[in-house]
Design brief:
- By secondary structure, the chain is of the alpha/beta class.
- It has 2 domains: 2-188 and 357-406, Alpha-Beta Complex (Quinone Oxidoreductase, Chain A, domain 1); 202-342, Rossmann fold (3-Layer(aba) Sandwich).
- The chain has 12 helices and 20 strands.
- α5 crosses α6 (216-227) and α5 crosses α11.
- The longest helix is centred in the middle third of the chain and has 13 residues, at 188-200.
- It starts with a strand and ends with a strand.
- Residues 216-353 form the Alcohol dehydrogenase-like C-terminal domain.
- Pfam families: ADH_N, ADH_zinc_N.
- Residues 48-178 form the Alcohol dehydrogenase-like N-terminal domain.
- InterPro entries: ADH-like_C, ADH-like_N, ADH_Zn_CS, GroES-like_sf, NAD(P)-bd_dom_sf, Zn_alcohol_dh.
- Its cofactor is Zn(2+).
Length: 408
């Protein structure tokens, strides 16, 4: 089968880092880069508790782009096994079922919870985090019956959604209701990232929430808050007009455009009923601000803005994939006694008094027509055109690009 794989080697990494400074396309458009389209064997079931999935759509995630552009921190490298097929956002159909799998049938239309935690790894004595349902915080992502990997799409044994087939443990399989179409299905995973952050850090009634970034995750944060029917005010800081339109569509109360000059700081402060003070030098200082901020970009400017626009005693939830970032001013964290919370992926969360996998909650919201995310899928590409797909994602502003998916 065809597969888009990430293959690490020191020469490939160093050369890509050097040449990528001249043109980002070198990261995927050269025979010497770490990313290649290859013919590989269809992955085999690791044991009788696994299933094989034929991929219908495989999404391109911001974390995939971070990987390809070699922006990931080395901290994450032990939690992968090379070479691996990229991609963890998936909707597909069951192609093969192990003999110890029940209630899952060939032909079922499914999404996959890609976290590779204790149960998927066959670890008899699960770690404390997995025992309480925090699968994304598993202690044993490098151990057990399969190779290291945080997710399907980072493990060489499982395949990924940027290939025609992948394998998954029976515990990872979630059936899609008939009224949830495939375009919503491929967005269950990214929506669950946003949903997990909101459910673990719910806005209070009448809070002012600022969402920084209006890419797929930022829009999904807005959609999650509204799908959960939380009565708060949502302000979104967006870069492009098409992002602003989608943010409004999903329930944002106000959109502020990010500008290269610093005018957006004054406009955002006004929206948040905050005051602006001028320091001796440097960027303006904001007094007051949002009760809760979801930071969905993960770069120096967005993190500084999150810290700048949070009121005294407020909370910042970091969803953006920040790695090693210089130039972040952390003064307001201690000066304003801010609560800083990271959010990684999804696990189990409480919904209407019941503890469920986050992806199950996402599917339930879609089934009950609380949210329809299919408009977020703006582009589809066959695997063979992966270079065009990645170029489209990189130049998202030019093509009004939100979510790009592969059709293997």
């Amino acid at each position: 089968m065809n597969s888009i794989q990430f293959e690490y080697s020191v020469p490939r990494y160093v050369l890509s880092k050097m040449m990528g400074k001249l043109s980002k396309s070198f990261y995927w458009n050269s025979r010497l880069s770490c990313v290649r389209l290859r013919r590989v064997e269809v992955p085999k079931l690791p044991n009788d508790e696994w299933v094989k999935v034929k991929v219908k759509y495989g999404g391109i995630c911001g974390s995939d782009l971070n990987l390809i552009l070699l922006n990931d921190s080395p901290t994450t490298s032990p939690f992968a096994s090379f070479p691996f097929t990229i991609g963890h956002e998936v909707v597909g159909t069951i192609e093969e079922v192990g003999s110890k799998v029940e209630n899952i049938h060939v032909g079922d239309r499914v999404v996959i919870d890609p976290i590779l935690s204790c149960i998927t790894r066959g670890i008899a004595d699960p770690c404390p985090n997995c025992q309480r349902g925090d699968y994304s915080l598993c202690h044993f992502m490098t151990e057990g019956e399969i190779s290291p990997g945080m997710l399907i799409g980072t493990c060489r044994d499982t395949g990924g959604s940027w290939g025609s087939y992948l394998v998954a443990h029976k515990s990872q399989v979630l059936n899609l209701p008939d009224n949830v179409n495939d375009l919503n299905g491929v967005l269950v995973e990214p929506f669950s990232c946003a949903l997990h952050a909101v459910l673990r850090n719910p806005p209070k009634k009448d809070d002012t929430v600022l969402v920084i970034g209006a890419g797929a995750i930022g829009i999904c944060v807005v959609a999650a808050i509204r799908a959960l029917e939380i009565p708060c005010r949502i302000v979104v800081l967006a870069k492009h007009a098409f992002q602003a339109q989608l943010a409004s569509h999903y329930g944002a109360d106000e959109i502020i455009y990010l500008t290269k000059n610093k005018n957006y700081i004054y406009e955002t402060a006004k929206s948040l009923h905050a005051s602006v003070l001028e320091p001796l030098f440097g960027d303006p200082v904001v007094q007051g601000g949002a009760d809760l901020i979801f930071e969905c970009v993960g770069n120096k400017q967005s993190i500084n803005d999150a810290l700048r626009f949070t009121r005294h005693g407020g909370k910042v939830v970091l969803l953006g994939l920040a790695g090693i970032i210089d130039g972040v001013d952390w003064t307001t964290v201690w000066f304003n006694e801010l609560d800083i919370k990271g959010s990684f992926a999804y696990s189990t969360d409480e919904y209407r008094g019941k503890k469920m996998r986050t992806l199950q909650i996402a599917i339930e919201l879609m089934r009950n027509e609380k949210v329809d995310l299919s408009p977020l899928v703006t582009h589809r590409f066959p695997l063979e055109n992966y270079r065009d797909a990645l170029q489209t994602v990189i130049n998202k502003g030019k093509g009004s690009t939100m979510k790009v998916v592969f059709e293997p």
